[in-house]
Amino acid sequence: MSKRIAVIVGSLRKDSINRKVARALQRLAPPALSLELIDIGGLALYNQDFDLEPPAPAYAAFREQIRQADGVIFVTPEHNRSMPAAMKNAVDIASRPPGHNAWSGKPGAVISASPGLQGGFGANHHLRQSLACLDVLCMAQPETYLSQAPKLFDEAGEPNEEGRKYLSRFIDAYAGWVERLTA
Ligand code: FNR
């Protein structure tokens, strides 16, 4: 049976390049993996009071989706050299309440995409810093920072040959990473 992989996309916008990356990974994934894009746009801004009061239903559903996953892939844009607020919000929500960190022990991977030349390097590594603290076991290689990312997709949002090369390399390596950690 294929492993269930939760995919978190850090952009909420309709024409997001990072969502195109996530959808392409979904299609290029080997049969060992089944990728599901998890919506984080409906998650209210995290408030520590929610650790004591019953959390909003959207929080419970999101945490459960992460708990049920065999692994998690983070697809992140870069906002001001870091991850977007929506991504950090999702990371924080599933890390709480204390003692119930839903991310813990999951085989993870981070991929970033930007129209700029640095491919979201800053966001990618800020995110890895939080994931280390949360016990996500992040794949180290291949590092994947997709620079000038719109050039990797055609008008229909499909990756071109170069795009497929980077994305296949990433998702095939991740399948191996999941197998190593869950065998
Ligand atoms: C950006 N963008 C950006 N790009 C980058 O490479 N480094 C950066 O630090 C920033 N900073 C930044 C801040 C804010 C507030 C916005 C809205 C945008 C540009 C960004 O890479 C571009 O909008 C991407 O298209 C965002 O990814 P999605 O939404 O297409 O997936």
UniProtKB/TrEMBL annotation:
InterPro entries xrefs: FMN_Rdtase-like_dom, NAD(P)H-dep_reductase
EC number of this enzyme: 1.-.-.-
Pfam family membership, one: FMN_red
Organism this protein belongs to: Candidimonas humi
Full protein name: NADPH-dependent FMN reductase
Oxidoreductase listed as a keyword: yes
Keywords from the named record: Oxidoreductase
Top class in the EC scheme: oxidoreductase
Domain annotation NADPH-dependent FMN reductase-like: ranges: 4-149
Keyword Chloroplast listed: no
GO molecular function per UniProt: oxidoreductase activity
